[in-house]
# Entry
Amino acid sequence: MSGTHAHSAAFVRDAMLPQEPPPATSVGALGWLRQNLFSSWLNAILTVLSLALIGYVLAAILPWIFQSSWSAGSLAECRDQIKAAYGSEASGACWAVIRERWLQLIFGFYPSELYWRPILGFALALAGMAPVLFTGLPRKMLYLSLAAPFVVPWLLWGGTVWLPVSVALGFVLGYAAQRIVAPLAGGLLGAVVAGLLPVLWWFLLAGPFATLLHQIGPLGIEPVSSRNFGGFMLSITIGLTAIALSLPIGVLLALGRQSDLFILRAICVGFIELIRGVPLITLLFVASLLLNYFMPPGTNFDIILRVIIMVTLFASAYMAEVIRGGLAALPKGQYEAADALGLDYWKAQRLVVMPQALKISIPGIVSTFIGVFKDTTLVSIIGLLDPVGFSNSIRADVNWNGIVWELYGFIALMFFVFCFSMSRYSMYLERKLRTEHR
Amino acid sequence: MSDTAIDRSRLTVSDEVAIQILGMNKWYGAFHVLRDINLTINKGERIVVCGPSGSGKSTLIRCINRLEEHQSGKIIVDGIELTNDLKHIDQVRSEVGMVFQHFNLFPHLTILENCTLAPIWVRKVPRKEAVETAMYYLEKVKIPEQANKYPGQLSGGQQQRVAIARSLCMRPNIMLFDEPTSALDPEMIKEVLDTMIQLAEEGMTMICVTHEMGFARQVANRVIFMDQGQVVEQNEPEAFFNNPRSDRTKLFLSQILGH
# Structure
């Protein structure tokens, strides 16, 4: 109230106040400490107590981690070494088991002379993902993204080079059908034919076609059976495929659920609710046991492929609901503006609605991704040797019987690295896409 | 209210019909929002639609580009009848520009991208040409320097002018304005109205739902008053404001001009 007088209401400011720096206690390191740790007596006490608790926990864990043995042939040997080095009361981690088995935890029983194939495959997968994740990279790298889905599985499983070619041909077929049918018979029929034709091709003709080509021009690498897959390679194979496929399928399901076409809407709602209403583990049992009963006798439907399909369907249902949340958050005016400009349904979705809805849904989408990746450990229950499944077989070894923390700690650390990177990426993406108040 | 001088002699109306609405009715569920609307609008006309809230004026202009569907009667825009045929609807929409109360700019695109999106994807205009057109219209609404900002960084008045430019980039024959200044601070209303006046002077066919009676007096060649989903009165602005004939119109005018 400076400048005003109690006895008069009229007031005119004759000089505007200049801007002044904030007080020293509210800026810099001192300001940060005050604001975040010692803003009141209660907060100060809590800060001190929390620091004490953290210190206590670290004091217990750190010695265990570092008073450790890195080279031993068995758990007993480990313990002897630790006692010899740090005294008879000391207990420490036996990292020797990781040192001995880390290759198996990563590759499972994949033949060691062929390790270069999964390594090259995942390098290629990373290179294919990079231009999708980071728009600043050269656009030419998108060719890698197109090639990776066909080349990487071929590198992993090996076999004739004609199989991925034949599978890729399915997409070409679908695209061609869409281009030919849509102008003749309308967009809807075009989409249906373009969707059905590749599926028929893959189920009925792609295999024989590849075999035929292989007989004409045998060209391939040594095949590796799915039984030999294991460790993080298996987790990443299942997780990455499910993640990459669940987003587009989830978008389509979410749109279908909002569609004006009653039958389409009913199918999408039914699918989403059915899949969400069933535990993933049940779906995995269906994949490993029941599905074979429905297949013609003698068909060999790869177990990893079956698991991938189930995990993908599971993730897609959740993804659809996450994206529906984003769609619902979008103001109606955005749809109306797109309509009023003459954009048709698919263009409006692609250019106006989805970029915004997906942006709103990023936290939910990434949570689903992280959940899917971690859920891949459930495949250990149907007998696949993912890291958790493999750790069981390591503990069944006489030498390592009784080892728990070190194995699970290592597996947890690996999962944390993957999941934390996804989480960081999502925050980077949110920051990049923020267009308000920049 | 705008005080920009306007030369009414420059505002010409042609004999050609731009929009024809014949015996049109619309219901929201059981509620009869628009009742037997008959309206013929010629090219170059500037129509102001006014009336109390809930009278159906917004719904009426939203029917003209099929943001709302009418259940009976005919709407013919530029010779194209609006039916369920999606091709006709898209054709009408690309010839009719619309400006909304809440601007409805696309927040994930820059101002320039907002303006070039529809020309590139609907009209198939080459990108370079679309950018040139966009810059031409952004200059016209006097904000070319904001082209690379995002809508969230602009004031309400600037956003609404961008929305007008975005519509103009499609080179529409008809412009619909749905309460374009109702969400704006008083200081910003004038800049938007000035832009609209400029458009009128260039001969654009305009239908404008607004409460800006000064704008109606100055620019409109016809004022339509609606109540309870019906056209209650229509007349030239001078006659409409000075000698309203229906009691409902008199009451409405006394309430909005009374203060």
In short: Chain A is about 70% helix and 0% strand. The two ends of chain A are 34 Å apart (CA to CA). Chain A touches chain B at residues 331, 333-334, 336-344, 347, 351-352, 355-356, 359, 433, 435-438 (CB under 8 Å).
